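Issue 218. Parser rejects a valid record. Input:
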Amino acid sequence: MTLHAETTTASSTTAPAPAATDGSVTSYTGLLERVRYEGAYPTRERADQAVRSVLAALGRQLVGDERVQLAARLPFEAALTLTAQIPAVTPLGGWEFVKDIARSTGGSLATTRWDVGAVLVPVAHLAGPALTDRIIRQLPSGYALLFGRPELLPARGAGPGERERGDR
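Output the parser choked on:
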């Protein structure tokens, strides 16, 4: 019986990390590859820029258990970026969140909106549906679409079992 030692080459260190069976990534490199795919970025470095700017901005919006639980589900480097931020006194709505990132990165609103979705959709997969729902409920309106979810709002003036005027 012959034993073969495995060697690590430069190409094996840049390969994407394997994905878990639930679709989540197991490393920061895996997260970057997922974001790179979602955002159609030409390089991993470009995906890294998007991840860092979006997670830093999200870290300024999240507080409490949702912040802690999300950090626990992210790869270490991503969790550090999220939790290194001091939460803002006044949370931003979804569109203001995008505009804030655009101001800080110097990007256009359209590119920044693309970056936000490319990062938050994989983050939502890592968080899982229950935690993502709690995060969206904690934040002001406008974040559901950024996480790749429909923005479902209760009908105004219609309570349970009531119909709005336009439904008659």
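Fixed in the parser; the record now loads. The CA atoms of residues 60 and 88 lie 5 Å apart.
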